[in-house]
Structures are given as structure tokens and as C-alpha cells.
Design goal:
about 230 residues, seven-stranded mixed sheet, Spore Coat Polysaccharide Biosynthesis Protein SpsA, Chain A, alpha/beta, 7 helices, about 25% strand, two-stranded antiparallel ribbon
Length: about 230
């Protein structure tokens, strides 16, 4: 019986402008390692068969992270696009031949084996799933003038995280459709599948520690997590 092939696409092509640092956030040192190292190491130690890294600094990534720390599952490094969804599409084109794909932000360093395992298990059943956690705060929908016009039920609202896992054929068709039709406002991969309208996307449990490092405040929180 043929074994399903699972590929992880790790996104590290962003500029990190909101961090306000001298170097891109994915290469900032967190603890003893570059931020990007943590997610690559998580996939290295997981059942994932290969990693496609989307990054614009190929030489640096290969020498200072992949070779230095023995991340042997990284098979290809491809350049990022102008926007996130274009970076994902670049990665998908290099993942041909796999059955399932996990798409992850390289700026989320606290990815666990438990989360990866549940993504792989669930995607083989439902074909499209993303990790997330219930919001803790009350959410307000506001109008253009900044006035609250709706308070949705907090029990139905999740903070969406990554990895986001899909059947490869499904997510590739979805991306081809949004690119062909020049759809704008895409902020995550689930939106792309939702636009295709072939499959519902299932939310599965992530972790409140699975944060994305975007601002200096996030870096302080990440350092506190490491100390624990």
C-alpha cells in the first residue's frame, strides 16, 4: 500500500517591518537560535517527509540554519512573492508529488509535535483543516466611523493559527483559481479553499503558545515561553 507523502511549506519571505529591527524577524535570535530554526526543527523531528522553505535569503538559510543545525528534510528553498499568498503558491509548485501539505508561518516558533500529528491525522480524513484557539476577549465589529455595530457570539470565534493542512490537489486548485481571477484580500490559506467552495475547512485545536512573532511585544512573550 502506497504511503501518503506529506510536505511542509514553511514561509519565511516576509519583511518583518512591524518588528522595527535591523534584520528580518525570521532571522532574529530567540534564545540560542534564529527564530526560523524552531519551526524547521519541529518539522524535522516530525513524520513530515520533506520541507519546502520559502525565503529570499537562500545562501544565509542554507549555511546558517539548514546546514549548521542539520535540517536535512529541507529539500528546496524557493523565493517568496510580493504577498503571502504568492509565496505559498511558489511553495506549492515545488511540492508536486505529495499527497498532503502543511503550510506554516516560520515566525511561529512554538509548533509542537502534537499539533503536527493532529494536523496530519485530520487532513487525511477531512482534506482541509487549520489549527486555532477560541478568542479570550469580546469581539466588536465596527463601521467605517469606528462605532460598534455588532457583537458576535464569542463561542463561535477562533484565532486562526498555522499549520494549515490540505489535500495537495485541493489547495493547488484553489490557489490556481484565486490567482487566475486575481482575488484580493487573501490573508490565510483557509480563505483560498473557502473561495473554491469545494470543501469545508475544519478548525482543530492549536495552542495559546503557538503565537506569531510580529511585534517587539511578541518577542518578549516568546522569551518568557522559552524561559518556562
Amino acid at each position: 500500500m502506497k504511503k501518503d507523502r506529506v510536505t511542509a511549506i514553511v514561509l519565511a519571505g516576509g519583511s518583518g517591518s512591524r518588528m522595527g529591527a535591523d534584520c528580518k524577524k525570521q532571522y532574529m535570535i530567540l534564545g540560542e537560535y534564529p527564530l526560523l530554526y524552531y519551526s524547521l526543527k519541529a518539522f524535522q523531528d516530525s513524520p513530515v517527509d520533506e520541507i519546502i522553505l520559502v525565503a529570499n535569503e537562500e545562501t544565509y538559510c542554507r549555511k546558517e540554519i539548514i546546514e549548521k543545525y542539520g535540517i536535512s528534510k529541507v529539500k528546496k528553498i524557493v523565493p517568496g512573492g510580493e504577498e503571502r499568498y504568492k509565496s505559498v503558491y511558489n511553495g506549492l509548485l515545488e511540492a508536486k508529488g505529495c499527497d498532503y501539505v502543511l503550510i506554516h508561518d516560520g515566525a511561529r516558533p512554538f509548533l509542537t509535535q502534537d499539533i503536527i500529528g493532529r494536523c496530519i491525522s485530520q487532513v487525511k480524513t477531512v482534506q482541509a483543516c487549520v489549527v486555532g484557539m477560541p478568542v479570550k476577549d469580546t469581539i466588536k465589529i465596527v463601521d467605517k466611523e469606528g462605532y460598534a455595530k455588532l457583537t458576535p457570539d464569542r463561542n463561535t470565534i477562533y484565532m486562526v493559527q498555522t499549520p494549515q493542512a490540505f489535500s495537495y490537489s485541493l489547495i493547488l486548485r484553489a490557489y490556481e483559481k484565486v490567482i487566475k481571477e486575481q482575488v484580493t484580500g487573501i490573508t490565510d490559506d483557509a480563505m483560498v479553499v473557502e473561495y473554491l467552495q469545494e470543501k469545508k475547512v475544519k478548525l482543530i485545536e492549536g495552542s495559546y503558545q503557538n503565537i506569531k512573532i510580529t511585534t517587539p511585544e511578541d518577542l518578549l512573550i516568546a522569551r518568557a515561553f522559552l524561559q518556562r
